Amino acid sequence: MNAPSQISFLDGTFSLIHIPLSLYPIFLQPILQVLLPQGDCDSDSLDEAVEGLSIDNKHGFLNISITPVECSVVCHNNWAKKVFEPIIKRLPKDASKTVTISKDSYLILSVESAAMDAGSRVMELTSPLAFAGIPIFFITTYYSDFILVPAKDRQTVQQALLARGFEFSEYESAFVSPSTHTRGSSTSSGPPSTPPPSNVAELQTRTFDLLKRRNVVPYVEDDLSLVVCSGRDTKTTQMSDYRRPAPSRQPTGNGHGSRRSWLDNVDTKLYTSLISVLVLQPRFLSMTLAQEDPPSLLLDKSHLGVFGDSVVGDMSGDLVPIFLDLENLPLEATGIVSGVAGKLVSEMRMAETGVSEQLSYLSTARAGAVILSHEQSMKALEVMKPLLGKE
């Protein structure tokens, strides 16, 4: 029997930040400041976690993505307010208007669903929310999937999952999927202002009609090939030398308490490599930190050598992203992820051939990327272009 999926809310509320590529050099320093937060704790607050970080200075969630469309950051509201907003305010007026921090705060759903292949996960996990009219962002990583939903829609999200057959487990503090999944129509207990689609086919039709009206044309970048990989799990390698901090702080020679440094919790080789690539402004890099997982990377293959043995995974991967520039769509547009992924899976008959195991999806602030093998990406373009091309 397949293991059930589990969906749980991460702690905190998050912001989605759009940075034009032309301003990326200006925002490199704040990006690195958020990525490397070890200097944010002063000696008077050693026993407390900085908002957005755990007690050992780990991010509850952070995604930094650089694509040919934009630089996009998902970070805790605390970082958006204290690190990014001051930089935006110092920009010339015309430039500051081009950088956006989402007005709405987002919650993040962490999804564990090892029993399903990647394509099925995207469809099964996003369709209930699409049917409920909830705008989402979807991030596939090496270990987990993450779904961003507006914080104001938390109750509607919960109702949509329950209506789909998920059950809330007090023990797991998570929504657990039913043993069997049902495809097709779904209802929500709180209909949105625009009537939601009644079934999968209508959802897909609406999605591509909207993309076509807004002149969204799918494309690939020449010679851009990706690999998905992970940093090594430092929990097992460092557990033997871990020293739990004493209940009362004991002064040390450097004037700080006994709290472990941020550097004690991370693979410094991985982070040095990551900084080296970020400084280069790569064509494509999506890095995700989640408190329970080692760092996950979706990386332009040409930069793989910089990381050496600090990453693990299938280094022979040949993944190609199909980009959808969604700048002309409002953030509250619904059903994009589910509609696009579902259409590709059905039209390419991925589920029957097993190819859907390779499909993943990355949402950024102004774009979406469907990620497939090179061969399947070309087939996907053949499916999408007639649906989105000019008549």
TrEMBL record:
Pfam families: ACT_7. Residues 102-161 form the CASTOR ACT domain. GO terms for biological process: amino acid metabolic process; carboxylic acid biosynthetic process. Residues 177-200, 237-261 are annotated as: Disordered. Residues 177-191 have a biased composition (Low complexity). Gene3D superfamilies: VC0802-like (3.30.2130.10). This is CASTOR ACT domain-containing protein. The lineage of its organism: Eukaryota, Fungi, Dikarya, Ascomycota, Pezizomycotina.
